[in-house]
Each structure stands twice: as C-alpha cells, then as structure tokens.
Amino acid sequence: MDIEEKIKYAIEKTEVLKPPRKLLASFVDTNIHYYILTVPMYLDFEGRSAESETVVREGRITCKKPKLITPSYMLRMEGFSGEARKAFEMLAEEDSDLAMILYGFKIRRDSEKMDIVPRSLESVASRISRDIDQRKEVYSALIKGVDEFWDVSLSKFVQEMVDNSANDLQVPDLVRDRSISVGSGGFPVITRDSTGTPVIARKEIELLFKLFEKGEIDPMELKAELDRWEVFEQYQDRFFKYFRNKPKK
Fold it and tell me: Whole-model pTM?
C-alpha cells in the first residue's frame, strides 16, 4: 500500500465519536479541545488483542476568525504542503470562482500530550465522553483515528468542522450581504464588482486600510493582502500617500 492509499485508508477509518456541541464562531477565535483515540500499531506485531491498549492524544486547536477566499487566492499564500497546494491547483482549474471559507489554525503543542491506557478503545471513549458532558464543554471533540496517521484523522475532523460551521453560519450571512451567491450546483460563488475583484475582498481591503492608517497593523500586512488579490496597482497611490504625508522625525 503506497502513501496515498494509506492516507485514504486513514481518512475512511476516521470517525468523530463526539463532535463539539457548538459550531465555530463567526467573528471571534474559537478554541477546540480534541481527544484522538487509536489502537496502537505495535499490538498487531506483538500478537496482542486490539482491546488491550488505547493511545489517547489530547491537544487544542485555536481557530482564528474566518475569511472568505477563492482557490486562486489560496495559491498565493504560504505555509501549505505540496500536496495541499496541488489540491488547490486542481480546485482552481475546475472553478476559480468557487467560494471557500478559510480558518487560520494553530495547534497548541504546549498542551498536546499522549497517554497509553490499558483498556479498550470503546471503554476509554465512553469515559472521556462522560467527562466532557460532566464538565459541560461545548468545544470538545472525541475522534477515533488510525495510529500511524492520527494527524490525518485530526485533519479530517477539522475539515468537517469547518464545512459544517461555514454552511450553517457564515454562508447564509454572506449571501444576505451579497458577498456570495449560490450557483446552480448549490455551491457558494464569489460575487465580483465591475473590475472582476470579489466584493468581499474590497471590504477586507478597506478594513485593513483603516487599521493601517491608525497604525494598528504593519504596512507589509496590507501590501501582502493587496498582492494576494492582485490589486496593488489599483491602491498604490493611496498606499504610498501615507508615507509621503508622514512627518519626518
């Protein structure tokens, strides 16, 4: 079995046993507490029952406030693996106007830990589920994954969580303010102005300009956003005007 087949197998075998009770917030950061349960790989090699031990991985994911993007926008962002970029390239080729919700994610390694529990996965899952209920945690998730590729299992959970949150919370609001429309296939489609620039991009740029003029963000953060949407030439006079009018020290 090659690596792609193993990843597909891990995705297929991943099961969200207990999803968060609340979806990701629309306008603030959300912190997800996750537990991933797997059967240790070595049990099979040692001839032991899969019921004898369970690996419990626990950590947190911070989900930054979401933004609406296009596949072509994604191709101009850094920090994605070659496989992820290839997927976005394929998506851009199919439909460059398809609207996507992007969350910024940060896995808090400082809180990540792993334990090996001498009990079956089912019994461990029941105990953790009861603990979550008792603590009334609305942003906790319990996931059954594959030991070798447990992070693939985490990725699948994240993808499903984003899709559900976007479809239930963000997309209706974006349709109402005409940032997107719904295409014939039922998928969100970016609404563009007369120049071909997404309306949502114009709103984002105006917000960043206000923050930039107040000195609340670095100039390069604004320029990076202008470059990602390929509209820097349209805004360059306004961008450089700040530096021309800035008093010399």
Answer: 0.61
The tally of CA atoms less than 13 A away on the side-chain side of residue 161 is: 33
Write down how long the chain is: 249
CA angle 219/27/231 to nearest 5° reads 35
Cα-based distances in Å from 248 to 99, 119, 181: 43, 69, 47
Question: pLDDT by residue (tens digit) across 184-239?
Answer: 777 778 888 888 888 888 988 998 999 998 889 899 989 988 998 889 999 999 99
Structural tokens at position 46:
């040692």
- The pLDDT score that the predictor gives to residue 165 is 75
Backbone angles phi, psi at 16, to 5 degrees: -85, 105
Spatial separation of the C-alpha atoms in residues 54 and 211, rounded to whole Å: 49
Of 151, 188, 155, the closest CA to residue 169 belongs to 188
The Cα diameter of the chain in Å comes to 75
Q: Is the dihedral of CA 68, 73, 75, 81 positive or negative?
A: negative
